[in-house]
Write a structure and sequence with these properties.
The protein has helices at residues 37-51, 70-81, 97-107, 116-135, and strands at 3-9, 13-19, 26-33, 53-60, 89-93. It is of the alpha/beta class. It is globular and about 35 Å long.
Length: 137
């Protein structure tokens, strides 16, 4: 049984989350530095093979009024580049996922200033869980 990969794409960091093999629960997995499209795709290729990824869910940062932003366009282009993996690629509205991730860390007394990567991983898990919940209804 494969997993679903959640991706919180950012200009400097990319947060990742993985579903469990039953595709019910999302967990924060890893954050890596965004060092350009080519390196990113190479990293994801090895992860897809290692973790038996069956689909990818990319967080789409839509503006609060539902409009596309400059970052929305970058994320759509990034998601298009993932088509080389021949996997289903889904876009999931990620509005406020980073805010929710940060709040959950504060509630657990985890400092957020030096843990930006952890915020990105948790944001990826939040958007992936949102996707899984809708899918499993």
């Amino acid at each position: 049984m494969g997993r679903i990969l959640g991706v919180d794409y950012g200009d400097s960091r990319i947060g990742l989350a993985l579903s469990d093999p039953l595709k019910i629960i999302a967990s924060p997995f890893k954050t890596f530095r965004n060092e350009g499209r080519e390196k990113c795709l190479q990293f994801l290729q090895s992860l897809i093979e290692e973790k038996e990824i069956e689909a990818i869910v990319v967080g789409l940062p839509i503006g609060m009024k539902g409009q596309d932003t400059a970052q929305t366009i970058k994320v759509r282009e990034f998601a298009d580049s993932l088509s080389i993996f021949n996997l289903p690629i889904e876009l999931e509205d990620e509005r406020l996922s980073s805010v929710s991730a940060q709040k959950s860390m504060i509630m657990q007394n985890i400092k957020t200033g030096h843990n930006k990567g952890m915020i990105d991983e948790r944001a990826a898990a939040i958007l992936l869980q949102q996707f899984l919940d809708k899918r499993n209804r």
